[in-house]
Amino acid sequence: MEAKDKNKREAVRHILTEFLSLHKLRATRERFEILDAIYNFNGHFTNDQLQDYLENVCKFRVSRATIYNTLNLFMEARLVVCHNCSVPPQYERALFVDPHFHLICTECKSMTEMKNSLIGESLKLVDTKRFKAAYHMLYVYGLCAKCALRKKREMKKLDKL
Questions:
Q1: Whose CA is closest to 99, among 114, 88, 79?
Q2: Residue 91 phi, psi (nearest 5)
Q3: Residue 108 to residues 22, 52, 143: CA-CA distances in angstroms?
Q4: Of the candidates 138, 82, 88, which has an alpha carbon nearest to the alpha carbon of residue 114?
Q5: Is the pTM of this model over 0.90?
Q6: What is the dihedral of CA 90, 69, 52, 83, to 10 degrees?
Q7: Which of 2, 86, 118, 138 lies in disulfide reach of 111, CB 3.0 to 4.6 Å?
Q8: How many C-beta atoms lie closer than 10 Å to residue 75's C-beta?
Q9: Could you write out the three-class secondary structure of the chain?
């Protein structure tokens, strides 16, 4: 593990420890294993993908209920962000994320991440007096290529009638 990655790991673990202490919650091994998995996971993930990652890569078994409850706790601690606009809901870490935006298909509800450093730079130009941003997210809604092609075929069929 690189020193930079180790520092990030220690930073998110410290945030979780402080959050748990502040709310008088137990610092369980499960919570820290899940946190480490999330911050090692690359990109978006669903509950099932996180559970598979924990079991197959981390060799750590945990129940679906524990993952669900822990993700809710991490959202409250601002360590994880939930994207409810996709089916199933997808999550991603809230800290140490490269600037990006999300393309969401209004038909199939798929979500694609697009990296773009200009987004972060643009947001720095926005005057946010009396507001301290924790993180940012940009959603672009439309049709994915697959759904757009299907719609186009449907329209051609209607024109022939």
A1: 114
A2: -120, 160
A3: 41, 24, 8
A4: 138
A5: no
A6: 0
A7: 86
A8: 14
A9: CCHHHHHHHHHHHHHHHHHHHHCCCCCCHHHHHHHHHHHHCCCCECHHHHHHHHHHCCCCCCCHHHHHHHHHHHHHCCCEEEECCCCCCEEEECCCCCCEEEEEECCCCCEEEEECHHHHHHHHHCCCCCCCCCCCCCEEEECCHHHHHHHHHHHHHHHHC
Q: What is the rounded CA–CA span in Å between residue 134 and residue 78?
A: 8
Give the tens place of pLDDT for each residue, 5-41. 788 899 999 999 999 999 999 999 999 999 999 999 8
Other beta carbons less than 10 A from residue 124's beta carbon: 9
